[in-house]
Amino acid sequence: MKRHFIYLSKRFLLIFFSIEVFIHFTVKDIVYPINILFYLSAPLLLIIGSLVMSILFFKNKKVFYVLVMSFFSLVFYWSVYYYKTTSIEKSTDSYDTVLFWNIGRNGEDPFKIIMKEIENISPEFVGLVEADCITNEHLEEFRNRFPNYQIRKLEGGMLVIVKGRIDVITYHYALGFYKFNVVDFNIENQKRSILIADINAVPFDNRTSSLDIVYRSAKDHNCSFIMGDFNTPYESIYFNQFRQNLYSFHDVANGFTTTWPYGIPLFEIDQIWSSKNNTPILLKKAYYNTSDHALLIGSYQSITR
């Protein structure tokens, strides 16, 4: 009885692993509620799963060899698709930077880190989500230290910093689904817009409408950049419109493209996208124990400036 139970358990795990691989590479999250299983098919989890399954089926040589091939194929896929070695070439004349960070966890004062990054890289603008910990005292300190920037707390627990003048802010939300701010601003007498998004983290939600609304709003406002914690993996089919009509900083990442959780290359849920008036040239990430999300620094060149 015990041997039969072990046999059935191993077969079940093998079937489940095969389904997860099939979902990741073909079905993805196109059908609800299969999207829940899609979140369990992150490449790192598949690699670990293939290794575990290889050990379990060591005595069954046919299955074992297939699983070993799967392991090496997944490692190759993961290292090529999710690990980049991008750098800014010395021949690059000039570039601008943007910064995005979900600072939701408590710990070291995240605003000190933000001010340090601004001092080092002088970004054109900064977008923060889950920034409720930022106080009026933080804002006053920032204004005194960086008079050439404007800083504003936004609805939905967000914050924006612009190296110029903030003109109009429009807040959109659907309770339990999404919230985002569109910020119209002026830099060096050029009018521009960015969208800062925070999509609900509950994995049981269907992200179709949320990401579609974000994309259409960015298009309507002619946004130069969309940045946010989308709580949706980069591979999701719901980013198809983004991939077809925008540039992603995923392609110019340095190191693993994944952004969550702290220090573990599991999911790429924090992302920066740009209009095709800008050319991404580098995405750097930094981790601080004040947040379980990576801080993203995107460098780009604008063809309109």
Quickly list its features.
alpha+beta, six-stranded mixed β-sheet
How would you briefly describe this protein structure?
This protein has 8 helices and 14 strands.
Overview of the molecule:
The protein is an alpha+beta fold and 305 residues long. 35% of the residues lie in helices and 29% in strands. The chain is built from 8 helices and 14 strands. The chain has helices at 2-27, 34-38, 43-56, 61-81, 110-121, 136-145, 208-220, 240-245; strands spanning 83-85, 96-102, 125-129, 150-154, 158-162, 165-174, 178-187, 190-199, 225-229, 247-248, 254-256, 270-274, 278-286, 295-302. Strands 4-5-3-2-14-13 form a 6-stranded mixed sheet, with helices on one face. The longest helix has 26 residues, at 2-27. The radius of gyration is 21 Å and the shape is elongated.
